TrEMBL record:
Pfam families: Isochorismatase (PF00857). Keywords: Hydrolase. Transmembrane segments: none annotated. Belongs to the isochorismatase family. It comes from the Eukaryota. Residues 62-164, 219-311 form the Isochorismatase-like domain. GO terms for molecular function: hydrolase activity. It comes from Lophium mytilinum. This is Isochorismatase family protein.
Length: 337
């Protein structure tokens, strides 16, 4: 290769007039979304080193989206032993959240938070993913049939079965089974019963992933971070409910409405489970034209390691970009004012 070829500088405009990136072979991808390709976006510029290329963001049009870091997925009261989700929480608390706040980046806590209306419209495939209720019929009932009951409401005489219809968990996703007693829940909206906290206190965990229930509350260390953030005078944290694994599915969601109202176009993703709710939201956001960056070490899953690796690979190579939380924090420390 000649010295002329190595010093060659290439530039590009990628996208369309209303949503475009700039690229330079020297400085990487510019995701600041200026008014025109020849102008600079107003405000500070945040330069980050991802696993594949440098990128530049505008903090004012960026958000850290933290997905499903809730008691049901992380609490020892549900038998959740320390694992990838807890490591992700540590990296959020130690690196990503402080960096986002220092840069003035919006923090969005995007969580399962179902209403009765959501449950009334929930499709069977989504219901099945969290187990479902089944009825054990006697020979007489099988022959004669049962008295009329509403088949779409939880019944006290039902039992919980896993997503395969089995009484005992046989694989698929460990977070749907209580690690202490092997209990399988009766699906979204069903009662989780009483759980015991680390201090010995018994609490009603509420209905599964229904807004306001204890099981749907943030895991305590992260709940403390949220409560601190929502009191900020500038760019306070926000909590947004979702009613599918993806928080960006369909024509519009509460999350998408918030992003559009606040001019947010670049999203840094974190949370659990990487290969389900995080990736579902990530890929839907990608398809809708948002800039997507995965914070690898701020995401975790109870699935096998290859599931995490698959999402990290595609996030970096096709859907957007990937990086770790320490590099994110380093970029913020060096941010242009």
């Amino acid at each position: 290769m000649t010295s002329e070829e190595t010093s060659e500088h290439r530039t590009a405009v990628i996208g369309n007039a209303s949503n475009f990136w700039l690229h330079s072979s020297r400085t990487g991808f510019d995701l600041t979304h200026p008014p025109t390709p020849s102008e600079m976006a107003p405000g500070p510029r945040l330069k980050l080193e991802t696993s594949t290329s440098p990128i530049t963001l505008s903090p004012a049009s960026s958000a850290l989206v933290i997905i499903d870091m809730q008691n049901f997925f992380l609490s020892p009261s549900f038998g959740r032993t320390k694992g990838p989700g807890h490591k992700a929480a540590d990296n959020l608390l130690n690196h990503a959240i402080p960096a986002a706040r220092k840069a003035g980046i919006q923090i969005i806590w995007l969580n399962w938070g179902l209403s009765d209306e959501d449950l009334d419209k929930m499709p069977p495939g989504v219901m099945r993913a969290f187990g479902f209720q089944a009825i054990v019929e006697t020979i007489e009932e099988t022959a004669k049939g049962r008295p009329h009951v509403d088949p779409f409401r939880e019944r006290p005489d039902s039992i919980g079965v896993d997503k395969h219809g089995d009484v005992r968990f046989r694989g698929g996703h460990a977070s749907l089974e209580n690690g202490k007693d092997g209990r399988i829940y009766k699906g979204l909206g069903s009662s989780c019963g009483i759980v015991t906290l680390a201090n010995g206190e018994a609490v009603d965990a509420g209905r599964l992933l229904v807004r306001g229930a204890w099981n749907a509350a943030l895991f305590p260390p992260l709940d403390a971070a949220f409560k601190e953030g929502e009191k900020l005078s500038e760019v306070p944290d926000v909590w947004i409910h979702k009613n599918r694994m993806s928080g960006m599915w369909g024509a519009s969601t509460l999350c998408e409405e918030f992003l559009e109202a606040h001019g947010i176009k670049s999203l840094l993703f974190a949370g659990v489970n990487t290969d389900q709710c995080v990736s579902g939201t990530f890929t839907d956001a990608f398809s809708k034209g948002y800039d997507c960056i995965l914070l690898n070490d701020c995401c975790g899953t109870t699935s096998p390691a290859y599931a995490q690796q698959c999402i990290e690979f595609n996030a970096a190579k096709t859907w957007g970009f990937a990086m770790n939380s320490e590099d994110f924090a380093k970029g913020v420390e060096e941010m242009e004012k």
